[in-house]
Specification:
2 domains; alpha+beta
């Protein structure tokens, strides 16, 4: 074997070993990054309390259920929340505690919440609803049924801010509405 052939064989072997080493290292890094846990969602930065619900007519066949909350910022940081791709609001189901996006829920308006302050926030659920006429004897029952159908299996709503990696639990309070409606019948 000539010296040239030996250098070529040694060089090829070296390049092969280098490539195998890089491949093994990248596989190890990939496994390590997959096994690392995602950072936890910050939950105690803002607290929310249920204020009330309102059903608004959009047009004769559509309505908007608006649910309002009082927010309290428990941090030294200002927060701004606006409807968009980084904000997701899910229903947390009473039946099994799982999250659902069965009905679209969105912010009613952007919210600015200064550090250590309070602010009001509202979410909306829009849907089909044939508004009964004022003379309809079942007017109130039809509206109550619409609201009940939207909230019957919802334990609470949870807002996720993917940009800042925090979540906000929006507690229920609509059971009080159902109890009051049953008491008035």
């Amino acid at each position: 074997m000539s010296r040239k052939e030996l250098f070529w064989i040694a060089g090829s072997a070296g390049i092969t070993l280098l490539a195998l080493g890089l491949l093994a290292n990248s596989t190890s890094l990939l496994r390590r990054s997959q096994s690392e846990e995602a950072p936890a969602w910050s939950q105690k930065t803002i607290s929310a309390g249920y204020v009330g619900s309102q059903l608004k007519e959009i047009d004769k066949t559509h309505s908007s259920l608006i649910i309002s909350y009082d927010l309290e910022n428990n941090t030294d940081t200002d927060f701004h929340v606006a409807d968009g791709p980084g904000v997701v609001i899910l229903s947390k189901l009473k039946s099994d505690g799982s999250y659902s996006q069965e009905q679209p829920v969105r912010l009613s308006y952007p919210v600015f919440l200064p550090a250590r302050q309070h602010a009001r926030m509202a979410i909306e659920i829009n849907g089909l609803f044939n508004w009964p006429g004022d003379a309809d004897a079942g007017y109130l029952d039809k509206m109550r049924n619409f609201v009940r159908d939207r909230l019957e299996n919802v334990g609470e709503f949870v807002l996720f801010d993917q940009t800042n990696h925090w979540q906000l639990e929006l507690p229920s309070g609509w059971e009080q509405l159902q109890e009051a409606a049953q008491a008035s019948n």
